[in-house]
Amino acid sequence: MVLADKIYCTRENRRYLKEKNINLKAKPLGRPSKQALSNQVSPGERNPIEGKFGQAKTAYGLNRVRARLANTSESWIATIILVLNLVHLAEVALYCLKIIFLNNKAEKKNNDWILKYRLIIQNAA
User: What's the pLDDT score for residue 16?
Assistant: First the structure.
């Protein structure tokens, strides 16, 4: 699925997405039907996407790409987006490791309690 602004929803882009079987979620062309209105992008739906573009522009220089060839520009943009994804993946991995560490620590603490309980029972018997 692609969320797109009105400016990017040209007939040519819509035709390309349709050929590739990619669902487009945007304001329809012409007078929209009731069904087409349900396919629109809600106001807050693009906020995370716009935030990532802002981060790419300010932190990673997406707004400073000045390549002469189109292929070079595309390579720069793809590399910046790759770095954004790697940073996000690192954050998720760190969070997962933290959860695993805390769970292991809690299990070890619970196991220590179980071992102490077993020792008490064995001594009482």
Answer: 92
Both tokens of residue 108? 């070890």
pLDDT tens by residue, 37-89: 666 667 677 777 778 888 888 888 888 888 888 888 889 889 988 998 999 89
Whether the CB-CB separation of 26 and 6 falls below 8 Å is answered with yes
Token couple for 69: 């060839």
Residues whose CB is less than 8 angstroms from the CB of residue 120 and which lie 6 or more positions away in sequence, other chains included: none
In a shared domain, residues 23 and 39: yes
Q: Write out the E strands in the chain.
A: 2-3, 24-25
Same domain for 39 and 50? no
Count of structural domains within the chain: 2
Could you tell me the pTM of the whole model?
Answer: 0.53
62 and 97, same domain (yes or no): yes
Kindly give, in sequence order, each residue whose CB lies less than 8 Å from that of residue 13, ignoring residues fewer than 6 positions away. 4
Structure tokens, 9: 């929803």
Residue ranges making up the domain that contains 102: 46-125
CA distance 105 to 11: 57
